[in-house]
Amino acid sequence: MARQILLTSFQTWLPHQRSNSSDDLLQKIQEHPPHNLELLYLRHLPVDTDQASQQVQKAIEQYQPYGVVCCGMAESRQGLTVESRACWGTTQFSTSLPLEVLIAPLAATTISHDAGKFVCEGLYFHVLEYLHRTQSSSVGLFVHVPPLTPENEAKIVQDFHHLLTRL
């Protein structure tokens, strides 16, 4: 049986944004999904920590996926970044995934230890906290996606595709 991976993306939040690169990436993956995975999509989450977290937790409860990969746009970054942890106040949760091993063969992906102090970090924190609190066997990861351009799109899509198959 193929591993189920829940993938999430956000809506835009600033007037100049024509689209959210996290959702653009999921659209590309949806058009050409990895063969060995069953991907579940929760796209266009509201840019609101509480609402987004509730929707993702409900989907985790419903599907019990092997993994949850939340994606968000990072306009100032150049490549994909996998987030090692999320903080909320003085509490911190870290992903259980071996990020160094996971991204070792990827050309356009790095590890970040700062999920951004915005709705991205809020969602990631609440997902990791939920997985911990419910003692879920699911793994959680947050990936920041730069704006997709003709110059970087192929590398970004390829790295994300490989990242999913390596989970």
Automatic annotation (TrEMBL):
Protein name: Peptidase C15
UniProtKB keywords: Hydrolase, Protease, Thiol protease
Superkingdom assignment: Bacteria
Family, per entry: Belongs to the peptidase C15 family.
Species: Spirulina subsalsa FACHB-351
